[in-house]
Amino acid sequence: MKKVAVLVGSLRRESINRKFAEALGKLAAGRLEFQFVELGDVPMYNEDLWADGGPAPVLRMKREIEAADAVLFVTPEYNRSFPPVIKNAIDWGTRPYGQNSFAAKPGGLIGTTPGSTGTAAGQNHLKSVLNVVDVVLMGQPEVYFQYKPELFGADGSVTDEGTAKFLNGFLDRFTKWIERTSEPRTSAQADAA
Length: 193
Hints:
About 40% of the residues lie in helices and about 15% in strands. The chain is α/β, with parallel strands linked by helices.
């Protein structure tokens, strides 16, 4: 089973994007293993912090991304863009020069908001950044999900049949995307993971 590093772009305790990502993880069980990467303790990017080898939360984040077979970005939309916590993770993850944790990593992008356009503008902005940092981003299907609490149960699972079918379609395509675009790992990389 492929391991997916999940980066959620909201640090809020009751984040609907975190809830959405957890619901996706439940749907993906048996196909993909979701590992949520903690971003709340990662400091704002500062090149000077590499002087002592880099902050421990950054090194942990980089290891978790590198050990995964793919990465899934789950982003809210702030002011028609994606949030700074995602950009910060990308900036740290691509440094120091030559040590890009995202390089050639299969990726997916999804997000939710109560608004009717989902996170379309934020995702489109993020796509341009992910392409530059060498994430092998799945282009279709796009999911701009309008969050409605009644679609989810108290345990966080998707209870609406149509929603589950739609999201399972995304997960099926993402699973195939990972299989199709993953670069073979060397035995040294597999041992390090």
